[in-house]
Amino acid sequence: MRTMKFQSMxxxxxxxxxxxxxxxxxxxxxxxxxxxxxxxxEGPAGYIVKNNAEAIKxxxxxxxxxWNGQPIELVFRDMHGQLxxxxxxxxxxxxxxxxxxxxxxxxxxxxxxxxxxxxxxxxLLFVTTAVTSQLVGNRCNPYTFKWGINSYALASNTAAWAAxxxxxxxxxxxxxxxxGHRQLEDFLNILTPxxxxxxxxxxxxxxxxxxxxxxxxxxxxxxxxxxxxxxARDHITSTQQITxxxxxxxxxxxxxxxxYDETIKENQMFFAGDYGTVPWxxxxxxxxxxxxxxxxxxxxxxxxxxxxxxxxxxxxxxxxLKAVERANSKExxxxxxxxxxxxxxxxxxxxxxxxxxxxxxxxxxxxVKVKPPHLNEEPWDIYEVLETVPVSQAYRDPQxxxxxxxxxxxx
Length: 411
Known about the structure:
Blueprint: H1 2-22, E1 34-39, H2 46-49, H3 52-63, E2 66-67, E3 70-71, E4 73-78, H4 83-96, E5 101-104, H5 108-121, E6 124-127, E7 144-146, H6 151-165, E8 169-175, H7 178-191, E9 197-204, H8 212-221, E10 225-229, H9 232-244, E11 253-256, H10 261-266, H11 268-271, E12 275-278, H12 291-302, H13 308-327, H14 332-339, E13 343-344, E14 352-354, E15 361-362, E16 365-370, E17 383-389, H15 391-394
Parallel strand pairs: 1-4, 1-5, 5-6, 6-7, 8-9, 8-10, 10-11
Antiparallel strand pairs: 2-3, 12-16, 13-14, 14-15, 16-17
Helix pairs in contact: 3-13, 4-5, 6-7, 13-14
């Protein structure tokens, strides 16, 4: 009798070992939810994105700070805007640190590279700063979500509004790297169907200090609209020199590929009168669920209202945590299922949705015009809102993006 009982215990023990050995290494960190943030504090665009991690921390706190009875851990890495370092740090976060998800990844080339790592490790990535539409287009994968506006939506909404309000002849100034190339391609795909004529383009090397030759080329082309597809320091320098050359006084209308509040506020006198698209503005979104408290706290802590990047970072983190809660699991595939097609209302989106076809988060967007500084009713009152584009019109149908998520699924 004892022998049979002993043999049964041995058999159960052996079966347990076999089952355990067959599980992936991820099971070892089952009890702790770990969030990675891959961003920039020192380096290009650091002044724009350095507080994104603070918004992520606020979302973790507001969620309750706990999951499965354990404190949620946050691991931050500053990749200084360097592609090779970003990839190395992503591998360290997913591998050695065993984070379950990475947030942020500024710069399009970096976001695309880290997205490949997310696929390789089968762990989640939420891109909240980089805007390349390739993330939800021909280079999408099921482990990557794009939270906040993408380059195609920026291009299409600005172009559609300009076509009806300004004119049809367009000259472009384009940063000569991945983000600029993608943004230009998106604009060109939109301009022709809307009846625009693209009368010229100048490719701008990163770090250009003298834009005179490019602006002279633009004037010779006699455009109605000068479309500025540059970012960070190039965006500031080019806009300053557009003003110094008095191009706007000569009747040229300036529109932009992307607006970042920090860039506009510090250089508002140069951007005054210019047009663009933003996915969120603190003044118009004050009544969204939870937004007033978020904006008030941000003002108290940082002596300024949050930018759209801060709202996007908070929203992405909160919706990820709620998806983990709905799935009752942090396993990537189960969280993906909880996010795909999910509708929600929060500080960013009212309503918002996650497209299941390409993992783009969508919400209404705003067409804005930069105010002259003397018209500011209060600090950081930098935009005049010209139009709200509803979510149903603001983004492409996933079926038209070139994204085919199903070919990646192997589980």
